[in-house]
Amino acid sequence: MHSPEVLLDDNDAVYDYYLRHQQNRWKALASYAVLARRFRPRVTFAEGAKQQLKALIRSGRPVIYAINHLSTSDPYTVAATAWRSPLRSKIGRVRVLAKDELFLDPEQRRKVDMMGGIPVFRGKDHGIRAVNAAGQRMMDVCAQRLADGDHLAIFPEGTCNEVDHTRVQAVGSGIGHIAFRAAKLDAAPALVAIGINYGTYAAGVEPSAAEVVSGLAYFRAPIRELPQRPADIARLVKEELQLAVDGAVAHY
């Protein structure tokens, strides 16, 4: 299938492509393994969460992973975490929302596509009105991918937290709409919050490369029953994500 340029003006073709795009699983596994050796995250779990996550993955139910956002290196930390956790068995079937600018450079796009990226045209980059239709289509694509058996990883804060890495920023309703639309397709997803922590560093700056290596990822126990309204789902996501961040800070 032809791979269109990731441009807002051509978002229909873009999302037609990413509705069906499937990366090479063996290349993905190899790349995730390399990232795990390079970034070496410490993976920890809330009490009982690891066993519950394993059971959830075995059940075949779709899962949305909500992750806090601290650094442009977070996608690599998450990939390395997936390799070092029960998520390894789902590598190649996890979609990851990523801002559209990461798809512009061909070499960078190759890497993002390999990791299961789905582009997001953000209002802060293009204007709220300009991205409305594309945003609706993106949420439909994510819901359908969940209904098709994929998992979905989202940084619901939408941008790197440069204020206080211990406090979750505002969470938009998008993640709630995706879960709601998946449920309408008879594929009600579970929710797993993952908190990332890179230690103590100055506010207003990203953690250094040395701080990113050997960061910590903390898994909350899965939430199997989500509220019915998108706004309520988003509120639950923020609550769970804050608890995950608290866990990551406490276990660092």
Automatic annotation (TrEMBL):
Whether DNA-binding counts among this entry's keywords is: no
**Annotated InterPro entries:** Plipid/glycerol_acylTrfase (IPR002123)
Residues covered by the Phospholipid/glycerol acyltransferase domain = 63-199
Assigned keywords, A-Z: Acyltransferase, Transferase
Single biological process term from Gene Ontology:
phosphatidic acid biosynthetic process
- Source organism superkingdom: Bacteria
The molecular function terms of the Gene Ontology recorded here are: 1-acylglycerol-3-phosphate O-acyltransferase activity
Which Pfam families does the record match to this protein? Acyltransferase
UniProt xrefs under PANTHER family: 1-ACYL-SN-GLYCEROL-3-PHOSPHATE ACYLTRANSFERASE (PTHR10434:SF11)
What is the recorded name of this protein? Acyltransferase-like protein
Q: Which organism is it from?
A: Nocardia alba
